[in-house]
TrEMBL record:
Belongs to the ABC transporter superfamily. GO terms for molecular function: ATP binding; ATP hydrolysis activity; transmembrane transporter activity. InterPro entries: AAA+_ATPase, ABC_transporter-like_ATP-bd, ABC_transporter-like_CS, MacB-like_ATP-bd, P-loop_NTPase. One of its GO terms (cellular component) is membrane protein complex. Pfam families: ABC_tran. The keyword NAD does not apply. This is ABC transporter ATP-binding protein. Residues 2-231 form the ABC transporter domain. It comes from the Bacteria. Keywords: ATP-binding, Nucleotide-binding, Transport. It comes from Paenibacillus solani.
Length: 231
């Protein structure tokens, strides 16, 4: 589904180039729950940004279903970001003066879809992530875990083909984190492709494929979950 070929990303740090991704080659498969792990600063977020078209490459190629997204025009990449992928961040960042329902619906309106259709789907998504009762509350009026559930709903509103999640449980309690992981796992069982960055071993156990990143390179790939031979 997503293919990275010799992907490099360097940052100009003033005195020298810092290589945050060093010739990464990676294949991600449709329907997989892919987890990216590695120590802090190893380049996990950088890799997620490159694979999802949220950041530009220094060199290399990124393909989504055979199309080179790193060569997309501004218009094509904007469409890709709002319709083909959903993104969930550790820091959540919902719009503070919109209700949870409005936050979930927002990218649907931006995509130019009909109001009633988006509204209906946003309600269904809030139901799915278990916060329908909080639909009319502002983010500040619910817990961090409930905010993150709304953020997952928002990421799903345009029915993306893949969800990228960058430490989605990182700012949450153990209990709230488990709820988020259960939601993601359940979505994946219903064939949603997911690519998640995490530090959390428990979260990594949900993976079909575990990609280990160290110092800007892929250190190894473990096949678990549906690929595991002993299930
Ligand atoms: P991780 O997600 O594994 O913690 P990141 O991908 O965020 O790692 O960062 C990898 C490395 O690249 C880190 O050393 C970080 O400081 C550096 N880095 C990330 N973004 C930038 C940037 N915009 N400018 C300079 N250095 C950056
Ligand atoms: P995370 O914990 O999710 O990996 P980080 O704290 O590493 O997030 O990075 C947050 C943001 O800051 C990212 O957009 C990243 O590109 C940027 N960033 C990280 N390290 C640096 C750096 N050394 N210089 C500039 N920007 C950075």
């Amino acid at each position: 589904m997503i293919k990275a070929v010799n992907v490099c990303k360097s940052y100009d740090t003033g005195t020298a180039q810092f290589h945050a991704a060093k010739s990464v080659n990676l294949d991600l498969y449709e329907g997989d729950f892919t987890v990216i792990m590695g120590s802090s600063g190893s380049g996990k977020s950088t890799l997620l940004y490159l694979l999802s078209g949220l950041d530009t490459l220094t060199s290399g190629e990124v393909y989504f279903k055979g199309q080179r997204i790193d060569e997309y025009s501004e218009k094509e990449i904007t469409y890709f970001r709002s319709n083909k992928i959903g993104y969930v961040y550790q820091s959540i960042h919902l719009i503070p003066d919109l209700t949870l329902l409005e936050n979930v619906a927002f990218p649907g309106y931006v995509a130019g879809r009909s109001k009633s259709e988006v509204h209906h789907q946003a309600l269904n998504l809030l139901e799915m992530v278990g916060i329908a009762e909080q639909a009319d509350r502002l983010p500040s009026q619910v817990s961090g875990g409930q905010q993150q559930r709304a953020a997952i709903g928002r990421a799903l509103i345009n029915s993306p083909e893949v969800i990228f999640a960058d430490e989605p449980t990182g700012a949450l309690s153990q209990e709230q984190g488990t709820i988020i992981l259960d939601i993601l796992t359940d979505m994946n069982r219903k064939s949603q492709s997911i690519v998640m960055v995490t530090h959390d071993i428990k979260a990594a156990c949900r993976a079909d494929r575990l990609v280990l990143v160290e110092d800007g390179s892929i250190h190894g790939i473990l096949e678990l979950g549906k690929y595991s031979t002993d299930q």
